[in-house]
Specification:
Length: about 650
């Protein structure tokens, strides 16, 4: 049997051309992100202040990746991918941004390959993939280094579905695509390979869960694909099993039975995620946010996601959770959700793609829709990374069916499609510009949202690190008016006063933050530093030690504690703590200098000399380090 195609071109050439076009479009739209730096929203903990990530791939860091609950998540493969960037491309922002972009481009290709494989509709699949590539809601997942987990889990999730499609078409339903029919006629090759495809699907699903646990709903998506386009109805499956029994062919398990391993993995990942997020404080809001408010926000968020899919304006890095929604908005959202669910169910036989697309979207959002509240956001653009595919299915296949029935001129159809995609790409490029730095990102968020105290804090931090302390304090004050008992705001105000040298005011704000959140190592570390500046060395030492009990791998706390020991003349203790800091941050020349100074005080000049040598290799033109080397061993210029 030969594959038929309505196109005058060879189908393989079409697919190759479309693949190249998809990748080029993705790179062109998102290329500016490769020139951007980090942002101060999760990026520090995920990359540029994380000593394990900066330390690269090692056995110790590998063990840490699989055992840590840092950032209130368990996603070891995300950590390993970031370590890979640091290991081979350094500590700058360019490499992780490029990796995010390449993963998104790979996901665009996988979306095209998956739906072309499932439906044999090459141009509809191409349109879906192109819309996935350039839709503005995806900017956050690509431009934000900390959202590596989005594009990485998306990559493994799409591979899971692709392998599952191969498994089903090989073993159970080999009617589509054409290549599957041809191979099926050739013998039992599909039956010999089906177990491999199933095993690969399970393997990639595990990898996806270890990248971001949002994929727990993927077994539900598999069941939807069984309905359409794989057409594994209960009656057809029962008939196949009867035929297999009569012909002594291999037993084909029912669709639901196949999903049991996936469902068990989803359940395990859900439990682990909840425990880790609870320990990390990410779900502490459960005790403060009533269930009624969470349910209201869930229905309103479905409506807001739909609005931003079809009219992607006023996108922000964070949408604050409101204290309550107007009753009319809640009622309208509930009615809209119910009507769309009812319509999808009623139309499931005539238009199965509407049923699958809508419940793909609604179902995949369940883990992040806010019933179990994680963080302070009401919704997030990044949460729509894979769920948005469901809405694209509904739109593109509905338009495709209408065009197949009415047959409009191809030139008109191409022109309209091109205009839509160019508009999306232009809007995405405009949204990408907001990610250039913290000022543009959080300034935009404040402009398009209300009562966004997180954006106020982060904009204030940007002003603070750029020496604009008065502007920073204004933003911090605005944040404190929105959330008076927020420890992060008090902590940031303390940091601003510390930069001005107002140590007593800084100490007061640090203490206020600790009264609200007493188990925060960063606050303890900075309070200890401020106390040390006012010569309260005993209390400073207690703060650093308390910080290290909470976070043993804190480079700053080790270095600061060592500095206090050095000031007090406890050089043995100082050397121990400087050495611990140097092990955690081997690329930090100042710590190596501090360790060398301490070893010099202990009379261990050879070790001190080696420390200065390592520091000089990290900063070859530093005159202070060169002077220290000459003072220790003036006859050795190296």
């Amino acid at each position: 049997m030969k594959c038929n195609s309505a196109s005058p071109f060879n189908p393989l050439c079409n697919r190759v051309f479309i693949g190249i076009l998809l990748v080029l479009a993705t790179v062109i739209v998102y290329f500016p992100v490769t020139q951007y730096g980090f942002v101060n929203f999760d990026d520090p903990g995920y990359f540029f202040t994380n000593s394990h990530v900066l330390g690269g791939l090692s056995w110790a860091n590998l063990k840490w990746a699989f055992t840590t609950g840092d950032q209130a998540n368990w996603h070891p493969l995300t950590w390993l991918s970031l370590m890979w960037d640091a290991q081979f491309f350094g500590h700058g922002a360019a490499a992780p941004h490029v990796t995010n972009l390449l993963l998104h481009a790979a996901n665009v290709l996988l979306v095209f390959i998956l739906f072309q494989r499932l439906t044999d509709k090459i141009w509809r699949s191409a349109a879906l993939a192109m819309l996935f590539a350039v839709h503005p809601l995806h900017v956050e997942s690509v431009a934000w280094v900390a959202e590596r987990k989005d594009v990485l889990s998306g990559f493994f999730g799409l591979l899971t579905l692709l392998c599952y499609a191969h498994y089903v078409q090989a073993r159970i339903h080999p009617q589509s695509p054409c290549r599957a029919e041809a191979l099926c006629e050739g013998g039992s090759i599909f039956h010999s390979r089906s177990c491999l495809f199933y095993a690969l699907s399970l393997f990639f699903f595990i990898c996806g869960l270890m990248s971001k646990p949002m994929l727990v709903t993927l077994p539900f998506v598999m069941l939807l694909l069984d309905f359409w386009p794989l057409q594994r109805s209960c009656r057809a499956e029962a008939q196949r099993r009867r035929v297999n029994a009569l012909t002594n062919r291999q037993f084909n398990p029912p669709p639901l039975l196949e999903k049991i391993p996936f469902l068990l993995l989803s359940a395990a990942a859900s439990v682990v995620t909840f425990i880790v997020q609870q320990k990390g404080g990410a779900v502490s809001a459960l005790t403060r946010i009533p269930m009624g408010l969470r349910v209201e926000n869930a229905f309103v968020s479905y409506t807001r996601y739909l609005g931003k899919i079809f009219w992607p304006v006023n996108l922000a890095v964070l949408y604050p959770l409101r204290g309550g929604w107007p009753l009319l908005a809640v009622i309208a959202s509930v009615v809209l959700f119910a009507v769309l669910c009812f319509a999808a169910i009623v139309l499931r036989k005539k238009y199965p793609f509407i049923f699958v697309g809508w419940f793909w979207f609604a179902g995949m959002l369940v883990p992040v829709i806010g019933i179990v509240q994680v963080g302070a956001q009401a919704m997030a653009d990044r949460y729509a990374y894979l769920p948005i595919v469901g809405i694209f299915i509904v739109v593109i296949w509905t338009v495709g069916e209408i065009c197949a029935a009415r047959r409009p001129p191809r030139s008109v159809l191409l022109a309209v499609t091109a205009c839509l995609l160019v508009a999306c790409a232009a809007r995405a490029r405009n949204q990408i510009a907001n990610w250039e730095n913290d000022q543009t990102l959080f300034g935009h968020a404040l402009a398009v949202t209300k009562n966004n105290y997180v954006a106020s804090l982060d904009l204030g931090y940007w002003y603070s690190i750029n020496g604009r302390i008065s502007e920073a304090l204004k933003d911090y004050d605005r944040a404190l008016r929105m959330s008076p008992n927020d420890p992060t705001a008090l902590y940031d105000v303390g940091n601003a006063f510390a930069k001005l040298g107002y140590w007593n005011q800084a100490i007061e704000d640090y203490r206020g933050a600790l009264r609200i959140n007493p188990k925060q190592p960063d606050i303890l570390d900075n309070l200890g530093f401020a106390l040390a500046q006012t010569r309260q060395l005993a209390e400073a030492t207690a703060c650093f030690e308390a910080a290290l009990k909470l976070k043993p791998d804190s480079v700053g706390a080790h270095n600061n504690l060592a500095t206090v020991f050095f000031i007090r003349g406890d050089y043995q203790d100082a050397a121990r703590e400087f050495a611990a800091a140097a092990r955690l941050a081997p690329q930090n020349p100042q710590i190596m200098v501090n360790l060398g100074d301490t070893l010099g005080r202990l009379g261990r000049k050879d070790e001190a000399f080696r420390c200065y040598q390592r520091a000089l290799r990290l900063q070859p033109n530093n005159p202070a380090i060169q002077a220290r080397l000459k003072s220790l061993w003036p006859k050795n210029p190296d």
